[in-house]
Amino acid sequence: MPVDPAAFLRATPPFDGLPAPLLAAATAALDEVSRPAGTRLVRAGGTPFEHLWIIRAGVVRLERDGRTMQVLEEGEVFGYTSLLTGTAPLDVVVEEDLVAYRLPAAEFRRLLADARFAGHFATGLGERLRRSLELAPAHEGPPELAQPVEQLVSGPAAWVSEDATVGDAARVMRARGISSVLVRGAPPGIVTDRDFRGRVLAEGLGPETPVAGVATRPLREIAAGTPVHAAWTALLDAGVHHLPVVRDGDVIGVVTSTDLLRCAAPGPMAVLRRVEGLASRAALPGYAAMVARMAASLQAGGLDALAIAALVARLNDALVRRILAWGEHDLGPAPAPYAWLALGSEGRREQTLLTDQDNAIVFADAGAEERAWFVNLAERANADLEAAGFPRCRGDVMARSWNGTLSEWRSRVAGWLDAPTPRALLDAATFADHRAVAGALDVAPLGDAVLAAVDRPPFLRFLARAALDFHPPAALTLRLRAAAAIDLKKAGIAPVVFLARAYGLEARAPARATVDRLDAAVRAGLVDERVGVAAAEAFRVLLGLRLREQLRAAGERREPEDTLQLATLSAVERSRVKDAFRAVRALQDAGEHHFHTRF
Fold first, then answer.
1. Alpha carbon distance 544, 513 (integer Å)
2. Is 0.85 topped by the overall pTM?
3. What is the model's pLDDT at position 374?
4. Do residues 155 and 183 lie in contact, with contact meaning Cβ atoms separated by under 8 Å?
5. What pLDDT, on a 0 to 100 scale, did the predictor assign at position 303?
6. Residue 362: which H helix or E strand, with range?
C-alpha cells in the first residue's frame, strides 16, 4: 500500500509538531531511498551525512568500535548529529532492508527556526520525554480538567466583619444564595453552612453567637491559575468543601466541592461524595469500578498518570478512614492511639487502579496489653477493603499480620537494616514507603528509623542491587517490535522505584514519591541531574502506558495487567517507549556505579 509522505511525517516526531506550511515544505523536499541489509551508510570519522534520514521501513544500527549503541526502526530519525556538528561520530549500518525519506541539510536547517522542532535535537533525554508527554494527544474527554479554577468562580467572595454574629452571616449567605462567607480579621477565616450545623445548632448556640468563634482560621487558599484537577487534590488533602481563590494576594471568590462536582461528574469529588455517603459495608462492592471509571475519564481528559494516582490515593484514604470508623463503632473506642499505614505503591501515592493490599497498623506502647483489639480492627478493615475491590496481599503484607507497638516496629526496622536478607530487603523496601492514613498516633519515629539506612551502606547496596535484578528490554541492541509484549512494571517502573528509594534514603529525604526521591537525590548531588530528570520522565511515561493498558483490560472485563502489547504502539509511542527504557538503563548504570553493587 502506498505511503503518503505528508501523513508519515505528521505522525513522526519531531515533524508532528510543525506548523502546516513548514510541514508542507519539508514534505516537498523529501526524496525516498532504499538500501539493502549490510550497507554501511557512514563510517565513524568519515564523511558526515548531508541529509536527515527518516526511517519508513527497516532497521538501522549505530555502532562505536564494533559495539552496538542503538538500534533505530520505523518512525525514527538519524543523521542530525552530522548536520549539527559536521562530524560522523558513529558507524551507521543497515541491519534490515531500509526504505527511508531523506531531508536535505538546507531544509533541515530551515526547520530549525521552529523552536519546538529544534528543541527535539537540542534537549536531553529527560526534556524530550517531558515534551512528548505534553504533546501527546489527549483522547476525547472532559476539557475542563486543565482549565484554571478561577473559571469556576461564579461571583465575588462575600465578607462579614469580625464582630458580626452567626445570624448576620446566615442572612448574607441567604441573600447571595451561597454556602459560605469569609470573616475579616488577622488572619481572616471562613464559616460555612456545615459549620452552622456542626458548631452552632449541634452545640445549642443561637443566632447571636459571634461568627468569629465558629469560623475556621487560617484560610486554606488556592491560586486562581491552579488547574481544576489540582483543585480537586487540594480539597481532598484539606478535607474541606470550600477553597478561597486568590489572585495577586486578593480573594476573588470561593470554589466549592459542588462547583468541582458539576465540572466533571465522573471526577474525584463525585467519588468522594459516594465514599462519604457510605452507610454500611453492603455499599462497598462497586468501589473499584467507580474508581476505574473516574481514572478513565481523567486520562481521557489528558491528565498525567501520576496526578491520577495521587487523586486515587486520596480517595482510598477517605475510604480507609470510613472503614476504620465502622470498626471502632463495632469494637468500641481504641484503647490507645494508633495509626493505619499505607505501604508500597499506595504509600507512595502511585497506585493507579486498585491492586493488592499493602498496609500495617502501629499502636502506642501503652496498648500492648490490648493487642487483640487492634488485630480485630485490622481483620475487619482488611476484609472491608477486599469487599471494596482491594485483593488480599499474596504475601500477607496486611495489617492483620503486620501490626505491633511503636517500639516493636522500630525494632523490626532496625533488624531489617542490620541483617539485609532477601526477605528483610523486601519487607524493608515495602515499609520504607509507609504513609500514615488514619489515626492519632505520631509515627515520625518510624520515619527516622527507616532513614537510619543511610548509616548502613551494605543495606543500601543490597537495596540498589535488587533494582538491577529487573532488566529493561535491550532497546539499544534489539528491536522493540521483535518481542510480543513488555512487562512495564518489571522492565521499567520497578527499577526506577527501587533505585529512587535507595537514593532517597541516602539523601535522608522524607519524601515517599518516586519522582520526589529522584529530585532529592539530584539536589543532594548523588545522581547526575540529566540522569535523574530523564528517569523521572521515563517513570511518568511508563506509568501512563501502564494505566492505559489497565483501563483497556478493565473495559474488556479482563484482570488488569502490566503487559504492553507492542503491536498497539504508534511510531511516536514506540519512539517514546524506547527513550524511556534508555533512561531507565542509564539510571541503573549510575546506580550500579554509585552503590558499588558489583562488590
1. 16
2. no
3. 98
4. no
5. 77
6. strand 359-363
